[in-house]
């Protein structure tokens, strides 16, 4: 099965989740950068992760999603961190569904440290354990 993990993380919170997912599935997580990403073969399951920045997903994540081809991406699983607003997962899910791509499960979201004192020490080991379980469940729901 062809599984990919892409994420954006300004603070390292979402990166922690991405690495936990990738380690669980024995693949590599890749951070979204300036360069457009294209896929040379169909992806059975694409994990997309981000945090919430001023009420929305980062522009790199939005641009990445805008360029996704429903013919190349069969399924998506979403993970995200937040400081105060937990809607980021729902927002990304809507963007994916608007592209005509199947979202395999509800988004996984958890607190992430924001500023200095908000949600300190998150994502924590409990959050990482939950995202590992989420990754296994999402992979199990993919049609092979």
TrEMBL record:
<dbReference type="GO" id="GO:0016651">
    <property type="term" value="F:oxidoreductase activity, acting on NAD(P)H"/>
</dbReference>
<dbReference type="GO" id="GO:0010181">
    <property type="term" value="F:FMN binding"/>
</dbReference>
<dbReference type="InterPro" id="IPR001226">
    <property type="entry name" value="Flavodoxin_CS"/>
</dbReference>
<feature type="domain" description="Flavodoxin-like">
    <location>
        <begin position="3"/>
        <end position="139"/>
    </location>
</feature>
<protein>
    <submittedName>
        <fullName>Flavodoxin</fullName>
    </submittedName>
</protein>
<dbReference type="Pfam" id="PF12641">
    <property type="entry name" value="Flavodoxin_3"/>
</dbReference>
<dbReference type="GO" id="GO:0009055">
    <property type="term" value="F:electron transfer activity"/>
</dbReference>
<dbReference type="InterPro" id="IPR029039">
    <property type="entry name" value="Flavoprotein-like_sf"/>
</dbReference>
<dbReference type="InterPro" id="IPR008254">
    <property type="entry name" value="Flavodoxin/NO_synth"/>
</dbReference>
